[in-house]
């Protein structure tokens, strides 16, 4: 069994979000994308924020997200596309 589970990881990432705001992560797909991007950063040489002794980069990335050491920041290009779509309608 994977620890933490997807549900636990989603709760940990969305923990600091206000009730009125939309959650940062709403699906397993979002978690997979975020952790894989962080794992790629670790592979490219970024320094890990947790002990990596004997761990693969993906396991390290999951642990960093679960402990709240890494945050998900929305892609600026995505926000621009949403704004443009809203203005045209």
UniProtKB/TrEMBL annotation:
- What reactions does this protein catalyze? RNA(n) + a ribonucleoside 5'-triphosphate = RNA(n+1) + diphosphate
UniProt GO cellular component terms = DNA-directed RNA polymerase complex
From what superkingdom does this record's organism come? Answer: Bacteria
> Which is an annotated GO molecular function term of this record?
DNA-directed RNA polymerase activity
Annotated Pfam families: RNA_pol_Rpb6
Instruction: Answer yes or no on keyword Transcription.
Output: yes
User: Which UniProt keyword terms apply here?
Assistant: DNA-directed RNA polymerase, Nucleotidyltransferase, Transcription, Transferase
Entry EC number(s): 2.7.7.6
The text of the family note is: Belongs to the RNA polymerase subunit omega family.
What is the protein named?
Answer: DNA-directed RNA polymerase subunit omega
Origin organism of this chain?
Blautia stercoris
């Amino acid at each position: 069994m994977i620890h933490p589970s997807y549900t636990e990881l989603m709760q940990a990432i969305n923990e600091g979000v206000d009730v009125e705001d939309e959650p940062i992560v709403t699906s397993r797909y979002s978690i997979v994308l975020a952790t894989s991007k962080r794992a790629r950063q670790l592979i490219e040489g970024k320094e890990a924020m947790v002990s990596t002794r004997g761990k693969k980069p993906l396991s390290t990335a999951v642990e960093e997200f679960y402990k709240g050491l890494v945050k998900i920041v929305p892609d600026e290009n995505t926000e621009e596309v949403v704004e443009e779509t809203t203005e045209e309608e």
